[in-house]
Amino acid sequence: MSRPADGVQGTLDLLVLKILALEPLHGWAIGLRLKQVSGDVLQVSDGSLYPALHKLEQNGWIKAEWRPSENNRRAKFYMLTAAGRRQLERETANWHRLAAAISQVVRLREV
Amino acid sequence: MAIDRWLHVLRMRTRSLFARERVDRELDDELAYHVERLVEQHVTSGLTPSEAERLARRETAGLLQRREECRDTRRVRLVEEFFEDARYAARHYASRPGFTAIVIIVLALAIGGNAAIFSVARSVLAPLAIPHAERTVVVWTDSPSRNWHQFPASMPDVRDWQASGVFASLGAFVEDGFNVRLADRTDRVEGIRTTGGFCDVLGLSTSRGRAFRTTDNPDDHEVLLSDHAWQSLFARDRDIIGRTITVDGTLHTVIGVLAPGAPRLGKEELYVLLPTSVQASTERGSRNLSVVGRLRDGLSLEAARRRMTEVSLDLARRYPKENGDLTTSLQPMQEAYVQDAQLLLGVLMGAVACVLAVACANIASLLLAKGLTRGRELAIRSALGGGRWRLTRQLLTEHVLLAIAGGAVSLLPAMWGMRFVSSFQLDELPNAHLSQLNGPVLLFTFVVALATGVLCGLLPALLVWRRDINATLKSGPNVDAGRTPHRVRSAFVVGQIAVTAVLLAVGGVALRSFLHVVTDSPGYSPSNVLSFRVSLSDVHYQTPQQQSAFFERVIERTQSSPGVAAAAAARELPTSDDVHGSGLIFPAQPEPRAEDVPIVLYTSVLGNYFGTMQIPIVAGRAFERGDVKESTPVAVVDEWTAHRYWPGESAIGKRIKMGRSQPWREVVGIAGNVEAPAIIRFLKGRIGQIYLPFAQDPHGRMTLVVRSAGDPAPLGASMRAIVREIDPDQPVFAVQTLDEVRAGGRSLVRLVTSVLMAFALMALLLAVVGLYGTVAYDVGARTREYGLRMSLGASRSAILSMVFRGGGILLFIGVTLGFVGALAAVQLVASLLYGMPARDPLTFAAVALLLLTSGAAAIYVPARRATAIDPVVALRCE
To answer: CA B809 to CA B78: how far, in whole Å?
Structure first.
C-alpha cells in the first residue's frame, strides 16, 4: 500500500470534505471543482482523487449514493456525513493553526 | 469514535467482505463514468469520438491502475486473503488425505483430553451454592503430636466452640443411612444426623415447609427431605408437610423439603436431628462429629483461627486427658470441598497438557519437514512476487486450519473422556457427572486448538525463510535444508522423549501401585464372598440380646441355604471406610499420657468370621460359642499387634483394655494380618487390628459376609429374602461381592493409572514416530554422503553405527532430561498412591528400558535403509 507522492495529499482530504460540504457531487465533478477553486495551483491527479474518496468513505466521513447525474446517467454521488462535518471542522481548525504557524515562521525569515 | 460513524464503517466493511463483487462492479462503474465524461469533454473540444476515446484511455491509464489502491482502502484485505489461503490450504490437504487425517487425529486426541479434563474440573471446582461461602468453614480437630489431622469432634467440644463467640452459627453432624418405610417396601436412604444449626450454616432453603432451627427438639422426631428424595420416595406428594413417615422404626414428621439446588455435602437425601443422648453427651473423648460453622460477622478467618487456638489451649488445660494434645483448624468450606479434587485434577491436567505438548512438538517437526520439502514451491512463489509475510501468513493459515479441524474432531474424544472420568463416580470428584460440552468448554477447546495451530505452525513457517531462496531455486529438491531446521527438529525430538519419560514414569508408578493393590494378598480371601449390611432400628432392637438373636438367625438361615459354604458377620470389614478406633491400654504400667496411648482399630465379629473370610489363626484360638457376655472378656489381635506390643514373647494370655472405661480382656488368639482400610493407609504408620466377640461388644449395624461355592453375586436375592422373612422392616443394603468392594476402593488409583498410562503410551508413540521421522529425514538428506563413504570403503556396520550415534544421542539426552523431571513429578502423585515409594527404581528402570528399546527400533528402520544405499546409485543421483 504505497502512498501517492502528491504534495497535496495531506490537504486533499480537507479540500474534498470542504467541497462536499457545499453540495453532494460525483467524482468527476469533484475533480472539476478542485481545479476550478484552486486554479491550477493544486495539481490533483484523478489517480489520487479516487483512492482519497474511497478512504474517506471507508472512514465514515462521507457516504455515497448512486443517482442520475446532470447528463442523466447513473453516477456515484458523495456527500458529507455528520461525522464528516465534525471532521471537517477539526481539519479546518488544524489547517488554520498550521497555516498561521507557517506564515509566522515565514515572516520571521523575512525580517 | 462516534457510534453513528462506527456503524457506518461496520456496514462498509461488511459490504466489502460479503458483497465483494458488487462493490468491485460499483468501483468499475464509477471509474467508467469518469472516463465517459473525459471522452465527452474531448469531443466538445473538437476531437472525433474515436480520437477522444483513445486520448481519454491514455490519460486514465494511471487511474485504472490505481483501482487496487481504492480496494486497499476497504481494509478487509487480510480477511479476504485469509479465505484465499484457507481455500488453498483445503485443496492442499485434500490432496494429502493420509497425512492430514493422522495430524487431525493426533491433535483431536490431545486437544480432546484437555477439553475433557477442563470440563470435569469446571464442574468439580464450581463454587458451592452456599450463601456467605467465604465465611463458612469446616472445624477440624488435629493432633499435632500424633501427626493426625482433620478428624472429627466431640459434642462437649462443639458446645465449647459454640460458646466461644467465634461462630454466628455452628452445626455438628454425622453422615448416616436410614431405613425408610414406604408404602410397599422399606428403603435404605443416605442422610445426615445433625444439630439444629446445620441448616443455617449451609443456608439450606426449602421449597416447602421449613428447615431445622437451633430451637428444634430432637424428641419431636422431625425429618427434612431433599428435593430428590421427595420425588423418588414420595412422588412429589403435595401434602408431604406434616405427614408422618417411619424412619428407623420411629414415626417422624416431615417438616420440610429442600429447594432443588440446595447444596449437598455428599449423597445425603434425608436429614434428622442428632438424638438428645448425643446432643447432651458429656463424653469429651468420643469424637465422631463433623463440624461446619459460619464465622461471626466482621471476624476475619485469621482472627477466628487465633481465637480458636486460644479456645483449644484452654480446653487442653481443663481436660488434659481428652484434649491434652489437641488443637483445631478452620478450613474454608470451598477448600474442604475441593481439596481432594485439586491434586487429582492437577495430575490429570498435567498429563493431558504434556500429551498436547508432545503432539504439538511432533506436528511442528512434521510440518517443518514438510515445509522444507515445499521449499521450492515457496521459493518460486516468492520469486514471482509473493511477499514473505504474505507467504508466512499462508503457511500459518494452513496450520491453524489443521489445528481447528483437530479441535472440532476433538469434541468426540472430549465427550468420551468426560464420560470415562465421571464413570468412576469418585467421591474425590463431586459433580463430575455434571460436566458437559457447554459454551466455556467449547471456547476453551477453540482457544487451545488455535494456540496449538499457531505454536505448531509459526516456527516452521518462520524457519522456511531462513534459507537462501536463490540457492533453493538453483538446486534440486534434495538440497540439504541447512542446520537450523535440523537442530530445531532435534530439539523437538529430545523434548518429546523427555516429556514422554515423565509421563511414563508417573504412569508407571501409578500402574505399579495399582498392581500392588490388585495382586497383594489382603490377608483374607475376597473371592466368592458376598457382603451386605443390615442396620437394625434402635426402637425394635433395643437390647443386645435382640440384636444378637437377629443376626444369629440370619447367619443360621444363610448357612443352611443352597450354595453357601460359610457365613458370618462383622461390625466393619477391612474394606470399609468406617473405622472404629480406640486407645489400647496395658496393665502394670504407669498410666500413659493421653498422646502416648497407642490407637488400634477394633471390630466385633459374630459366627465363624475368621473361617468365612479365611483369615488364618496363627496362634491360640478363634472365638467360640462360649465367649458370651457373662464369661471372661476376650480378644483376638493381629500378628502385627502381637509383635509390636509383646515383642519376643507370646501375646496369648496377655491382658488389654480398649479405652479407660472398658473391661480388661484376655488375648486368646492371634490372627493373620489383613490389609488396613484405605483411609488408614493414608495416615502415617501402621495401626493394629483387634477383634472382639459380638456377644461382648454387640451392635445393631453389622456387615454380613457369605462365602459361596461359586459366583457369589446371585446369592444377593436369597439373602434379601431371608432377612425380609425374619423382619421385613430391616432392609438389606450395600450388597456387593468383596471383589467389587475392593475394586471400589481402588477406583481412584484405577482412574489415575488408566488416564496416565493411556496418555503416556500415546506420548510414547508420538515420540517414537518423531524420532523415526527425524532420523529418516537425516538419512534421506545424507544419502550422497553415505554413498560416498561406502564407495570409499566404509562398511555397512560403520554406516549403521553412524546413524545410531546421531539418533542415539537424541534418545539419550531426552531420557536423561525426562528422568530429572520425572523424579520431581512422581513426588506430586505420591499421595494419590499407596503401598510403594514414588521413586520406585524398578519402574524407572522399566521406563528407561521401554524408551531405549522403542527408540532403538525407531532408529533401526532408517539406519537399515542407510546401509542398503547403493553407492553407485547414490552418487549418480544428482
So the answer is: 44
Q: Is residue A2 part of a domain?
A: no
The pLDDT tens digits of the residues spanning B779-815 come to 887 888 888 888 888 888 888 888 888 888 989 999 9
Q: Do B73 and A58 touch (CB under 8 A)?
A: yes
Of B12, B13, B33, the CB nearest to A75: B33
Beta bridge partners of B601: B581, B689
Strands B732-737 and B529-535: antiparallel
Quick check: B5 and A73 CB within 8 A? no
Q: Decide if B37 contacts A49 (C-beta within 8 A).
A: no
Indicate yes or no: CB of B33 within 8 angstroms of CB of A26.
yes
The proportion of chain A whose per-residue pLDDT surpasses 90, expressed as a percent, equals 12
Does the CB of A24 have a partner CB in chain B at under 8 Å? no
DSSP B351-405: HHHHHHHHHHHHHHHHHHHHHHHTHHHHHHHHHTT--HHHHHHHHHHHHHHHHHH
**pLDDT given for residue B714 in this prediction:** 85
Under 8 Å CB-to-CB from B230, ≥6 apart: which residues? B236, B237, B240, B257
- The cell for A77 is 454521488
User: What distance in Å separates the CA atoms of residue B119 and residue B432, rounded to the nearest whole number?
Assistant: 9
DSSP states of B675-729 as a string? Answer: PPPHHHHTSSS--EEEEEEGGGS--SEEEEEEEESS-STTHHHHHHHHHHHH-TT
Q: Is B824 helix (H, G, I), strand (E, B) or coil?
A: helix
For chain B, say whether A26 makes contact (Cβ under 8 Å): yes
The reply to whether residue A50 touches residue B12, judged by beta carbons under 8 angstroms, is no
Q: Is A58 exposed, middle or buried (0-12, 13-18, 19+ CB in 10 A)?
A: buried
Given its phi and psi angles, is residue B249 left (phi above 0), alpha (psi -120 to 50 degrees) or beta?
A: left
Say how many domains are in chain A. 1
Contact criterion met (CB < 8 Å) for B75 and A71: no
Q: Which residue has the higher pLDDT, B414 or A107?
A: B414
Q: Which of B767, B762, B764 is nearest to B807 (CA)?
A: B767
Give the residue from B739, B732, B712 showing the smallest Cα distance to B563.
B712
> For position A108, what pLDDT does the model report?
73
Name chain A contacts of B62, Cβ cutoff 8 Å. 45-47
Q: Are B379 and B469 in contact (CB under 8 A)?
A: yes
Residue carrying the nine cell digits 475376597: B526
Helices assigned H by DSSP within B482-543: 483-519
CATH code assigned at A90: 1.10.10.10
Long-range contacts of B515-521 (CB under 8 A, 24+ apart): B516/B835, B516/B836, B517/B746, B517/B749, B517/B834, B517/B835, B518/B746, B520/B675, B520/B835
Confidence band of B479 (pLDDT split at 50, 70, 90): very low
The letter for the amino acid at B177 is: G
DSSP B126: S
Contacts of B69 in chain A (CB under 8 A): 1, 4, 50-51
Q: What does the alpha-carbon distance between residue B213 and residue A84 come to, in Å, rounded to a whole number? A: 69
Domain extent for A55: 9-110
pTM of the model as a whole: 0.67
Cross-strand pairs, B188: B179
Q: What is the mean pLDDT of residues A70-92?
A: 89
| 3-state DSSP percent of chain A in helix, strand and coil, to 5 | 60, 15, 25
For residue A59, tell me if it sits in a domain.
yes
The DSSP bridge partners found for residue B582 are B600
pLDDT tens digits along B93-138 = 888 787 788 888 888 988 998 999 899 888 888 777 788 888 899 9
For residue B257, report the phi and psi dihedrals to the nearest 5 degrees.
-125, 130
Among the partner-chain residues B8, B62, B75, the one whose CB lies closest to the CB of A47 is B62
Instruction: Please give the Cα distance from A83 to B283 (Å, whole number).
Output: 82
**ipTM higher than 0.95?**
no
